[in-house]
C-alpha cells in the first residue's frame, strides 16, 4: 500500500462518492486494521465489528479525508480508540468480568510502557505490510493464528518446505525493517 494509491482512492471517494474506490480502499486496508483491533481486544468478532464501524465512519467523513496528512496513522488511531471504547463497553456488561477480558494480570502497567508497546506494535504492523503478500500470509498464519506448517501448506496449496522458506524470509525481512 503506497501513499499514492491511498490518496487516489481517497480522492475518488471524496470527489466522486465512488463506492468502487471505497471497496478497493477497504480491501487494501482491512487486514491491517483488523490486526490492530485484534491486538487490543483479543476477540475476532469484536475486531471485525470494530473495523466495520471504523470503515462506516471513514465513508461518512469521506469529504474530509483528503485533508488528513497521514491517513495510515489516522486509521490506526481510529481503530485503537474504537477498540479501547469497545473493551470499556464490554467490561460494563455484567456477564463478562474484567479478568476474562484482560487475563489475570495484577501487574500495573505504566503509561510509558503502554505508549512504547503501542508504538512498537504500530511499527510491526507497518513492517508486515511491506512484506511480499505470500510471506506476510504465511507469517500471519504461523505466528499470529498459530496454524501448523501442514495446515498452512494445505490451505495455500504449497509444500511445507515452501512454508518454512517463506516464514524464514518473512522473519529476516521483518528484522531488517524493524532494526
Automatic annotation (TrEMBL):
One of the Pfam families matching this protein, by short name: Sigma70_r4_2
InterPro entries according to UniProt: RNA_pol_sigma-70-like, RNA_pol_sigma-70_dom, RNA_pol_sigma70_bacteroid, RNA_pol_sigma70_r2, RNA_pol_sigma70_r4_t2, RNA_pol_sigma_r2, RNA_pol_sigma_r3/r4-like, WH-like_DNA-bd_sf
Domain RNA polymerase sigma factor 70 region 4 type: 125-170
Superkingdom classification of source: Bacteria
Domain RNA polymerase sigma-70 region, residue spans: 26-92
Keywords: Sigma factor, Transcription, Transcription regulation
GO BP term, pick one: DNA-templated transcription initiation
GO molecular function term, any single one: sigma factor activity
PANTHER family the record matches: RNA POLYMERASE ECF-TYPE SIGMA FACTO (PTHR43133), RNA POLYMERASE SIGMA-70 FACTOR ECF SUBFAMILY (PTHR43133:SF46)
Family: Belongs to the sigma-70 factor family. ECF subfamily.
NCBIfam families per the UniProt record, alphabetical: Sig70_bacteroi1, sigma70-ECF
Descriptive protein name: RNA polymerase sigma-70 factor
Biological source species: Bacteroides cellulosilyticus
Phylogenetic placement of the source organism: Bacteria, Pseudomonadati, Bacteroidota, Bacteroidia, Bacteroidales
